[in-house]
Amino acid sequence: MEPVLVAGAGPVGLVTALLLARWDVPSVVLEAREQRSQDGSRAICFQRDVLDIFDRAGCADDMLAEGVTWTTGRTFSAPCGSYSASAFPAGRSTTSS
Ligand SMILES: Cc1cc2nc3c(=O)[nH]c(=O)nc-3n(C[C@H](O)[C@H](O)[C@H](O)COP(=O)(O)OP(=O)(O)OC[C@H]3O[C@@H](n4cnc5c(N)ncnc54)[C@H](O)[C@@H]3O)c2cc1C
User: Fold this and answer.
1) Angle at 56 between CA 51 and CA 58, to 5 degrees
2) Which residues are CB-neighbours of 21 under 8 A, at least 6 positions away?
3) Is any atom of ligand 1 closer than 6 Å to the C-beta of 9?
4) 46 lines ligand 1 (CB under 6 A)
5) Is residue 53 within 6 Å of ligand 1 at its C-beta?
6) Cβ–Cβ under 8 Å, residues 27 and 4
7) Considering only Cβ atoms within 10 Å of each terminal Cβ, which end of the chain, N or C, has fewer?
8) Angle, helix 48-56 to helix 11-22, in steps of 10 degrees
């Protein structure tokens, strides 16, 4: 089977390659940058539906083991006060049946 060419080793490209591998489809990931960004990670959090996709790719358990779970985010900004947003309540996966 000819490999699928995936352009870009960001989260979309890497997860695409992982999901293709789960279906025994070979792929080649091409990345324009010669090295990882030195700015650090852009990700503070992953929402549950994103974790479901990581779960299908077989890497959610390792990510959960390294992270913490929270359901409410608060942003503090003077002089306006604070803003609070709730994530999905704890419970079932959004995609599993
Ligand atoms: C400041 C900031 C904070 C963020 N915080 C969060 C967060 O907390 N949680 C969250 O879920 N998301 C966050 N995001 C969003 C998240 O980073 C993006 O949604 C995600 O990176 C998009 O993934 P992507 O693979 O589509 O693109 P990218 O991550 O941009 O990856 C694309 C890759 O393709 C490469 N590329 C481009 N063109 C070519 C080419 N022609 N050939 C080969 N390679 C190529 C690029 O070099 C790059 O590595 C944040 C974004 C920013 C900017």
Assistant:
1) 90
2) 27
3) yes
4) yes
5) no
6) yes
7) C
8) 40
Ligand 1 atom, smallest distance to 12 CA: 25
- d(C-alpha 70, C-alpha 54), whole Å: 18
60: tokens are 């959610």
Q: How far is CA 15 from CA 29, 55, 87, 93, in A?
A: 11, 11, 23, 19
Question: Rounded to the nearest whole angstrom, what is the distance from the C-alpha of residue 59 to the centroid of ligand 1?
Answer: 19
Please write the tens of the pLDDT for every residue from 62-88. 988 988 887 787 888 777 777 777 765
User: What element of type H or E holds 60?
Assistant: helix 60-66
| CA 90 – CA 48 distance, rounded (Å) | 10
For the whole model, what pTM was predicted? 0.80
**Alpha carbon distances (Å) from 45 to 20, 53, 93:** 25, 14, 17
